[in-house]
Design brief:
The chain has 2 domains: about 100 residues, Translation factors (Elongation Factor Tu (Ef-tu), domain 3, Beta Barrel), CATH 2.40.30.10; about 100 residues, translation elongation factor selb, chain A, domain 4 (Thrombin, subunit H, Beta Barrel). The longest helix is centred in the C-terminal third of the chain and has 8 residues. The mean pLDDT is about 95. It is mostly beta strands. It has 1 helix and 15 strands, in the order βββββββββββββαββ.
Length: about 210
């Protein structure tokens, strides 16, 4: 086994931060080996990349050398080279199945927030501050957005050359929203993105539980 996705249980006595990308000692049976750890959250057949250990999560372990073991084997991760006081054990868990390739599909979440500048009609608005003027807007066309008043829409293209965009509403604007914009009150527009690591690909999504 050269890498695997493992379950993770944090050890509460460890006072440091277990961060993605750090090297740890993995003890399994009578063997101890160095491994890189990447903390992930499963989402179907892909994974959200986490900055640090944030339960509940999984850990992608990439070993410095192949080891002979089996899935479901118990392991403990530690920093045996830690100097000073405090617990050296970070987390523990069980190995999953061995990965045939040292590659999995991972993404990081990003959010952009802008403001509705004007209403063209109940199906179309113009927004600013979502992008910088040098941003290639065409890469984001068709991606969903949501207003803080609850209505949803999608980017249809650039509006001028200053980073503004036109949004086509997929739900009609509420009368109360139109009144807020007309009164120059702030109505925010948010875009939620998945940026895939090692790929030139960005996907948009709308989180569940939003108004």
């Amino acid at each position: 086994m050269s890498s695997c996705i493992a379950s993770v249980e944090a050890i509460k006595f460890y006072r440091g931060i277990a961060s993605s990308g750090m090297k740890v000692h993995i003890s399994i049976g009578f063997d101890t080996i160095m491994a890189e750890c990447q903390f992930l959250r499963s989402e179907g057949d892909e994974y959200e990349q986490l900055v640090r250990l944030e339960p509940p999560c999984l850990c992608w372990l990439i070993f410095d050398r192949a080891i002979y073991t089996r899935s479901c084997a118990f392991y403990i991760a530690s920093k045996l080279d830690h100097q000073g006081r405090g617990c050296r054990f970070l987390f523990h868990g069980q190995f999953g199945d061995s990965l045939k390739e040292r590659k999995i599909r991972r993404f990081i979440r990003r959010q952009r927030i802008g403001r509705v500048e004007r209403v063209e009609n109940v199906r179309s608005i113009v927004c600013n501050s979502l992008f910088k003027k040098e941003t290639k807007i065409s890469a984001f066309e068709g991606l969903p957005v949501i207003l803080n008043t609850g209505e949803t829409g999608k980017i249809v293209g650039a509006f001028g050359k200053g980073g503004k965009v036109r949004v086509e509403m997929t739900t009609l604007l509420l009368e109360s929203t139109v009144e807020k914009i007309a009164a120059d009150e702030t109505v925010e527009v948010s875009m939620y993105l998945k940026k895939y690591l090692g790929e030139k690909k960005i996907e948009g999504y709308l989180p569940s539980g939003l108004p």
